[in-house]
Design a protein that fits this description.
Number of domains: 1
Largest sheet: 8 strands, antiparallel
Strand content: 15-25%
Distance between the termini: 14 Å
Helix content: 25-40%
Radius of gyration: 17 Å
Shape: globular
Number of strands: 10
Number of helices: 5
Length: 191
């Protein structure tokens, strides 16, 4: 995939993320408060189990039904579960948006975050976790932070950093790439 095509796809996803957050906030006052999803159901049908599968797959259909997800264009928004599913070509779940902390539109995601990330990680700690040894084969030499492959601030509110090696994009609660204390707003996991 070319860099331009990759950037266009990511910009489209982030634009839709912003629209989704606004839509969910606007609709939240009109929706009757649902009961929180059963944690056993969340663990049984974790985001890994639905990523890359068709909307018609039993795991995906059960996950959407059990988590009171609603459809917003190409998204299935599961506000109570703290996540959203991006439905791409072939009606497959291409990206899962995880919200590790409560937002205006989403409860905090209660499942295990990918790659050892935690809800209180900052940009500095994410870069450290995704790092690499200073000297290969000599771990005692120290650890270098890993910087993202692609970055941007398309909505001028959130800075995003894409780590292609890990298949994740981290969106921060700051528009600045130099705000190393910025916390995670969302984590996008793609298939």
């Amino acid at each position: 995939m070319s860099a331009k095509k990759s950037m266009n796809k990511l910009f489209q996803m982030l634009s839709i993320l912003a629209a989704l957050a606004l839509f969910a906030t606007a609709c939240s006052a009109q929706v009757v408060q649902a009961q929180p999803a059963d944690l056993a159901v969340l663990k049984a049908a974790a985001y890994e189990a639905v990523l890359g599968k068709s909307l018609h797959d039993t795991d995906v259909a059960d996950f959407i039904a059990s988590n009171n997800c609603f459809s917003t264009g190409q998204f299935r928004t599961c506000s109570d579960a703290g996540l959203a599913l991006w439905i791409g070509q072939g009606q497959k779940v291409e990206t899962v948006y995880l919200y590790p902390n409560k937002t205006a539109a989403f409860e905090a995601f209660n499942g295990e975050l990918p790659l050892g990330l935690s809800s209180n990680d900052t940009m500095a700690s994410v870069e450290a976790k995704f790092g690499h040894p200073r000297v290969e084969y000599v771990p005692q030499a120290g650890w270098e932070p890993s910087f993202p492959d692609e970055t941007g601030t398309p909505d001028h509110i959130h800075y995003w950093a894409m780590y292609k090696l890990f298949g994740v994009t981290v969106i921060y609660n700051s528009p600045s790439a130099t705000d190393k204390g910025a916390t995670i707003y969302a984590i996008l996991v793609s298939k």
